[in-house]
């Protein structure tokens, strides 16, 4: 059971710190359930069966499903946030973008999508504090992308179709949609278009032309 977390979410060598193996297992399985079924797609009974405990044990650590979902979202967002913040904002743009896109490719070919993207589709039925945590996750990504787009404009004279902050929202939406589409069609390449949008946004015109020629040569 302890392998679930590493297969699903926590990228690299970081391990979620918890005070109880049972609590850790509950969160591990909750991350998977939320990422595959959503907030309304599972019950405490489902979780109890997966972990091998009574529902009363779940209530001990997480009195309500809202508490459970919030803890899961915070763990998910916190880990990814640590990775994103670990990328030097002044480092090579192309290198940073590839590391960032690797986060999105992590679960391609599985039944899972971005946990926060999955939950965002249920926004109207989510508790307010969970909704707030999701909004913070989206804002974190938008701010990260915006910073890189602003650098591309300032350093390379890149021309964007919209202001960096606005285009960042478009790119993030495309990445989320690309993951969902990849799962729907069973084709990881469905994420490629969104990835190309971000790569192109930081490239000069000559770089874009070279990339287009390379793509044409491979097709």
Topology of helices and strands:
Blueprint: H1 4-8, H2 21-37, H3 44-51, H4 55-61, H5 65-85, H6 93-105, H7 115-120, H8 128-156, H9 164-185, H10 192-201, H11 205-218
Helix pairs in contact: 2-3, 2-5, 5-8, 8-9, 9-10
How would you describe this structure in keywords?
219 residues, mainly alpha, Tetracycline Repressor, domain 2, 69% helix, 0% strand, disordered N terminus
Tell me what you see in this structure.
This protein has helices spanning 4-8, 21-37, 44-51, 55-61, 65-85, 93-105, 115-120, 128-156, 164-185, 192-201, 205-218. The termini are far apart. Helix 2 crosses helix 5. It has one domain (4-218): Tetracycline Repressor, domain 2, CATH 1.10.357. The model is unreliable at 1-19 and 210-219 (pLDDT under 50). With 219 residues, it is mainly α.
Overview in brief:
The protein contains eleven helices and no strands.
The CATH class designation is Mainly Alpha
Low-confidence stretches: 1-19, 210-219
**SSE succession:** HHHHHHHHHHH
- What's the number of domains? 1
C-alpha Rg (nearest Å): 19 Å
* Number of E-type strands: 0
* Beta-strand percentage range: under 5%
- Average residue-wise pLDDT: 86
- CATH fold category name: Tetracycline Repressor, domain 2
Oligomeric category? single chain
SSE-based structural type: mainly alpha
Q: So what's the overall shape?
A: elongated
Distance between the ends: 42 Å
Biggest sheet, in brief? none
Q: CATH homologous superfamily name?
A: Tetracycline Repressor, domain 2
Instruction: Determine the number of helices (DSSP H or I, runs of at least 4 residues).
Output: 11
Helix content, binned percent: 55-70%
CATH architecture: Orthogonal Bundle
